[in-house]
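**User:** Here is a favour to ask of a fellow structure person. Please take any protein you like and set down a full record of it. No explanation is needed for now; the record alone will do.

**Assistant:**
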Amino acid sequence: MPAISIPDDHKLGLEQIRDLPLDTVSQLIAALRECPKASDAGSTVKLLIDRVPSFSPPDAQRIINTLDSLYELKGHFEVSSETLAGDLIAAALRSNRHWLPQAEVPTFKERLIELLSIGSLAVRAKARVLERDHNQLFHDGRILTDLRPVFGLDPSEEPVGVVISHTLKVVFHEGLGEHKELYLVLDLNDLAHLREVVDRAEKKHSVLRSMLESKGIKIL
């Protein structure tokens, strides 16, 4: 596994886990072990709020977001909980050598190992890794519309008309790299076709969801 760095949006979650009192850690681990293996993030957050009295909704959400991200990292690189815990601590200490006293490293590592060994979170992460196991992943999209003037033979005269232009901007991830962008020009017919394609995909999704739910198969 390559050297990792901790994204800013997960540093707070990891620091929160580091600073939890022992009794709260025990409550957190017990609550996570209660989660059904097919539970989603929202139901897990609700369970934590119910089972860990000291957690506010933002606390629970932040911790679950951080743990879900760590489980996806673990699944992607297929590393053990112990290896990932050690790499996380090393990354935190590289960015700030005072982040954790050396004497507390073994205890915090054991805490992370326990939190990275929860069955329901592992199943959810596996589903996410399988869902996103593609070279390019959609991140964001936007359609830019502008007017382009059409001039006659004499460019010193006013335009004879305008063309309405639409540009589809697609932002995507490629592998584990940074965001990339793709721009596609569309006319009105293209927009209508794109809408039809999306509508068709949503209908297929709805039919498959209903079929699977009727057979008791959980959609992760």
